Amino acid sequence: xxxxxxxxxxxxxxxxxxxxxxxxxxxxxxxxxxxxxxxxxxxxxxxxxxxxxxxxxxxxxxxxxxxxxxxxxxxxxxxxxxxxxxxxxxxxxxxxxxxxxxxxxxxxxxxxxxxxxxxxxxxxxxxxxxxxxxxxxxxxxxxxxxxxxxxxxxxxxxxxxxxxxxxxxxxxxxxxxxxxxxxxxxxxxxxxxxxxxxxxxxxxxxxxxxxxxxxxxxxxxxxxxxxxxxxxxxxxxxxxxxxxxxxxx
Length: 249
Fold this sequence. Notes:
The chain has helices at residues 2-44, 165-170, and strands at residues 46-57, 60-61, 72-73, 75-87, 92-96, 99-107, 117-133, 138-149, 182-195, 198-207, 212-217, 227-234, 236-247. By secondary structure, it is of the alpha+beta class. The protein has two domains: 1-44; 45-247, Porin. The strands form two sheets. Strands 1, 3, 4, 5, 6, 7, 8, 9, 10 and 13 form a ten-stranded antiparallel sheet that branches. Strands 2-12-11 form a three-stranded antiparallel sheet, with no helix packed on it. It contains two helices and 13 strands. The mean pLDDT is 79. The protein is elongated.
């Protein structure tokens, strides 16, 4: 009898142990499946790809003195960026768009260089924008844009040879660009998804920090005594973009 009880106990123990192992494996399998499903859901909310656009750059002079006149006119330019974005449940999303953009403007009219030229400022930029979706296709974007000037020199033409070295120093039109290489701007725009992989958009950006200071000179005064005032200069541009989603929704 004792042998029978021992046998039954051993069998019960073996069955219990096997059942425990199977339950553990089942729990691991269910947990893994849930984590995989959750990760799949999260991944489906991420998009990434490329964007490029036409930029109409026209630097803005803040006319904080009575002698300031119009100095900049629109300049045709471009940008090339990548992007990664996350769509939250509901109407909101967030995106980062690292890339390259050329800002500046056409300098024309009465200026120290006695001519017309393109002030081309090349930046590495990083817009961090919020997306507000009104529909699955139409949404607005807004947020800060951070930029770093990568070509600090060579942005300005040489002053006329008729100027003496003293005149060239006295008639510097812009402060050195090294003083304001880092820039923060505000951006706002609208985007529309025309097909699953392609969006188009229209944006406007204006600097919150200046990129230079310009001086206003009256050439009728003796050299070095004709400065009539200074104005801060800010980047601004209008931009048309096309976005290509490598990983669409």
